[in-house]
Bifunctional protein FolD
Amino acid sequence: MKTLTGKALAAAIRERTQAEAASGPQPRLAVVVATADEASLWYVRSIAKAAAGVGIVCDVVDLGPEAAPEQITATLARLSADDHVHGVLLQTPLPAGASAQELATAIDPRKDVDGANPLSLGRLAAGLPAFPPATAAAVMALLDHYEVALEGRRAVVVGRSTVVGKPLAHLLLDRHATVTVCHSRTRDLAAVTAQGEVLVAAAGRAGLIGAAHVAPGAVVIDVGTNPTADGGLTGDVDAEAVAETAGALTPVPGGVGPVTTALLLRHTARAANLP
C-alpha cells in the first residue's frame, strides 16, 4: 500500500503562496475566534505561524467563549467591509446557540477563503468562481499531486458536511467522476463504499472504515481528525485493517491536514489579488 503524505505538497503550495503574496498588496487574514477550546486555539496559532512564514499578516480576533451571535455577526461584517482585510475565517467550535452556517452569511464571498458562506457553496455547485472549503480543496490537490485519475471513475464520499462532503462531491463531479455520498442513514455502508475506486472518509468517526469497506486497490483519503486518549490524532480509517486491501492511503496526521492549512493561505493570497 502506498502512503500519500501531504508534507511535500504543502511545502510546494507554501512556496507558490509566498511568491504570490510578494507580487501584490500584502495579504491579511482575519481569524475570528469565540471559543476556549484548546485544540481549536492551537490550530489558530498554527495558522498564524504558517501565515507569517509566507508573508501573510494574520490577525486573530478573540471574542471570547461567551460571545453572542450578534457580536460575532457584527465582527464578521466589519472585517468583510475592511479594505485592508483580504480573507475572513470563522473558527469553530462556537458558543452554544450559535450556528456557523448562519453566522458565515456575514462573510463577503470574495473574502470567504474557507468557503463557509452558503453563497460560496451555491456558487461552487453551479460551477461559478468561489473559494471551496480548504479541506475539500486539499483532497482534490492530493489526488492531483499523486496523479490519481478521476474521469469516469467511481468515487465514494463518506460524510455530507458543508465543510467536506458536499463541496467535495461537487469538485469531484466537476472532474467527471461518478460520485456517491454516504452518511449516517446509508444502509449497508460497506457494500456501498466497496464500490469506490476512490474513497474519501470524512465522517468524524474514528476507525469507521475497515477492510470490508475498501475495494481492492482503491485510493483512500482519510479526512478524519479524531482525538485519542494520549493527545494524538487518529483518522476515520483503520489504517492497519485496510493495509492489505487499499492501493493507497493518506496518513493521519500528515496527510490532508498540512495541505488544508497551506491552501487556506493560498486562498488568502489569491483574494488579495482579486480585481
Notes: The chain has ten helices and eleven strands. The longest helix spans residues 256-272.
